[in-house]
Design a protein that fits this description.
With 381 residues, the chain is of the alpha/beta class. It has 3 domains: 207 residues, P-loop containing nucleotide triphosphate hydrolases (Rossmann fold, 3-Layer(aba) Sandwich), CATH 3.40.50; 43 residues; 123 residues, Zinc Finger, Delta Prime, domain 3, CATH 1.20.272. The protein is built from 17 helices and 5 strands. It has a 5-stranded parallel β-sheet, with helices on both faces. Helix 2 runs antiparallel to helix 3. The termini are far apart.
Amino acid sequence: MRFADIIGQEDLKRHLTRSVDAGRVSHAQLFTGASGYGTLALAVAYVQYLCCRHRHDGDSCGECPDCRQIAELAHPDLHLVFPVNRQGKKSGEAMLSDEFLTPFRALFAERRGYFTPQEWYDRLDLGKTLKGMISAREADEIIRKLSFKSFESDYKTMLVWLPETMNEEASNKILKILEEPWERTLFILVSEQPDRLLPTILSRTQEVAVPRITPEVLEAEARRRGVSDPVQARNMARLAGGDVIELSHLAAGEHDALRKENFDLFCSLMRLSYNDRHLELIGWAEEVAQLSREQQRAFLRNAARLLRESFMLHAGIPQIGYLWGEELSFCSKFAPFVGTQNIEPLIAEIERAGAQIAQNGNPTIVFTHFALTVSKMIKHL
């Protein structure tokens, strides 16, 4: 995968290529950001550029044996680690990434490196509740692999996708390697939730923060994917929130039903909150708790967006909003209840609930507390 294959992120690409050209390659780097920003794809493109023997014009050649092998995730000096599990088995059972390399490579090739953890878990047939993990046995395998000399490249590279899924024992073993690395060994950690990593791991890695893709780039990408109406392309780019995976779903119409469901849940929450219907709010929380964790996180993201749009309507600046149809109708009526006094606490509560869900908190407890807390904040301002 070349940097030319990465959507947007031009400033970061230049930074990465210049650091390699100048010989400034940290032995442990932490790429952070959502999957839809291109975090994993960018990490692979960086490794390919580092190993390419015929770099030119700020990119790898894409033709040499090293480039071809890395693009297929099949280079002998590129080792992959990612969370795994099996349907019906306890997550504590020690399984290795090597057992699942074939489906992982297939998914990477199909999506060009742009896929979510849930899409990977779906490929493993884990359903909506089981998640993958990186075990202590995997950490032992990492140590074994890195003890060998490199085969073809100047660097041995260990790419760990979603290191936040490591258990404590695995994290401590990885930490020891980061403290005492082998020569010409490169660790690339690709994380969506770096706050779940051990502070000692964070302190021993150089962070590469991958930002959201700009709306201008996403608008152009929407048109490339067949969205001919410029207004629709612009609205999709804004709704995608810098995430090309979300843009793909919007362009294909795959999330229309989910978006309508999330909108209805938001309206219900705000109406029950305004009327202080606490018993019904508990029922609302139980309904949301039945959704998959990915759907719960999507609801929270959508709720934050609608609150921000309502706040802009309240502030008298609708021209920078991206609402239409029933969303515009509801938020126009709801806007008087969202102002400077409560917008920040409301967004903070959404972020807190999202973090708890990401950490496998009990969804019934999380959303019951969330709904009752929100109900105290919804007042006519």
